[in-house]
Amino acid sequence: MVISHERGKQPASRNGLGNNFQSPKRKRSSYYKTTKTAWKIFNPESEKRNLMMQMAEMYAGKRGDSAKARVVSGNHVSHVLPDLLLEEDRGAVDLDVGTSPSAVNASPKRLAPDQSERNLYATWNSLLPTLVEDILSYTSATVGLPERVAESALSSNCQAVPQNCVTKTTQVLCLYLNREWEIPRTLAYLGADFKFVLVQSCNCRTIAQVLVHNGLFPTAPSQARMAISIDLLDFYTALFERSCDGVNAMAAALNSHYSRRGFYLVDAKGQKYREPFRKGFGYAAQWLDKLKDIVSKRVDNALQDADRCAEVAKNGGRMPSQVTEVPKPHMHGPGPSEDSHLSECSRSLRLLCPACLSPNSFGKSLLEGGDFLVCTDGNFHHRHLTSAGSGIPFHQPKHLVPKEFVDKVGEDIRLARGRPRRTAKSVVPDDAINECENAHKAANGDKKKSNTGNARYDAQGYMSLICRHDIPLLFANIDTPGEQQKYAIALIKWFFECIPNNATATVLYDVGCVLDRSIQLFGLLPEAIRSRIQFATTAMHAYGHQWACQLVYNPRLCKGLGLTDGEGVERVWSRLTKLIPIAARRIWLTDRQLSFIASESLEDLGDWIKRRFATANSREDKAEQALLRFGKTVGELEEQWELQKKTQLSLPPSCTSEKTKELDALLSLQG
Hints:
42% of the residues lie in helices and 11% in strands. The protein is of the alpha/beta class and 671 residues long. Among the domains are: 115-292, no CATH class; 369-386 and 397-617, no CATH class; 632-671, no CATH class. The protein starts with a helix and ends with a helix. This is CxC1-like cysteine cluster associated with KDZ transposases domain-containing protein. Residues 1-29, 319-340 are annotated as: Disordered. It holds the Pfam family KDZ. It comes from Gymnopilus dilepis.
């Protein structure tokens, strides 16, 4: 043990603790006297007033900033590579460059778009229609061929007189998935990399048009300094359909792959950028999808016009000499038709599932199941955080019913519940339906779930409507506590607006018994729909209902429903689980995933029907063998079944489930 010099001078003691020793104070250095001297204020009151005024100005500035419009993802403007900028243009906005924390001033989080973001989206929306011809030209020229790599210089191919058209050359960074490298005496693929390309634009051919014509999509609507291969973006779209939204992962993977192959993106000082592709890749993927949606709308409009001309010619009418452009619909997807006398289902529904939505005739009896079998259900896992903010709508959903329509249905239901009740004609005792209502959380529209009741979420989930072939047709965004009846009613009304006036349908719902009684008591559906619809419970949830309810609403005990279980919605929810953690661009991502599920289900529809047909034949053979063993005819069994149903449905209302349990316990004791 090392003892200090002062401590060593202390006398030793044989008894007790000895004398108390205190460490001597250390001398301060002269540096402390010259640099740490307190600042003398000659007028403290004046200095205090100045500091208070500065603090008030700071608080006022913060309140002013918070009152302004806010954006979700922060500022769109990012730093740009200095060596990519030309002298005449220093305003690129599409490259992601990391900055040091000290160079960025902390700003309050913005939850709504500001004017700069609205201007950016407006610029994109005005640019995309001008790129339709170029994307079609590139797609038709490269289908079935290897990826086309742009030359080191791209010409605008302007058809105007050179003296009358001002040209401009811009250096653009181009990202590729597979790039051909020409090696002497061979041609090899050396994988992915990026290259710099000089792009020539003019007054009549923008830089975006030149890039798209050559298989590159810009990451900014104007002043583009980076472009991504359309084939690479298509590969990302296919990856998204199978996995999930992964712009960050894809951009980081590209950067890592480029770096491992010796391709680095550096600044003027030779320093590597950490995330050079993330934001630009996200913009390119988003707006290329929007461009393809515009193309698909034009194709659909052209097909509708051709169908209209064919229908006129079929009826002996006069075909128009010139094909006119069909007005763009308000909603691209299933929606109410302007024609109130439809002879067939709407085109959008027929394209989703031609097997069940393209029948030759309508008006099938509900005792036989009706013309259509659809299933509806809600899911409360696809929530949206309020703190994630709301972006600018740029996509017209193909599957989602507009919020205005759902709210209008909710208001109609509120007014209907305020009127006197009607006389219900249900054959199921009210006590049984009350038990079902209390047993299912979804049946109680006023019941707040654990994830609601606060301002943390501004959307609680989705309500779905699918056909019997598990193809998603319609969705509604749930923005209220609980699975209120307005969402199911809104989907049903929207669906019936898309089918002929004489078509019938069976709706399978977890609490179909409760919804059916509410419709009868309060008139939640117009009589034109009520006379053409019947309700049933889904097969899996049916066994949680009272036995009296199962006798009427269980799909396994109802005529005409066959082996339809109504659980296709659960299979759709299972395929959407990967979208649960995502808060940004929730509506767009969900609608895109639903379109992919519908497209893939349509491709597998033949195999799906084949498998179900084989299962039905197998069960039919087993049922016929069982009937042969019993020695009873089908007519006798049906007669006994009707008598059993009549007896069990005629129980007095006082015979509740508690008394039934007591009776069962007594019978078990008696053996």
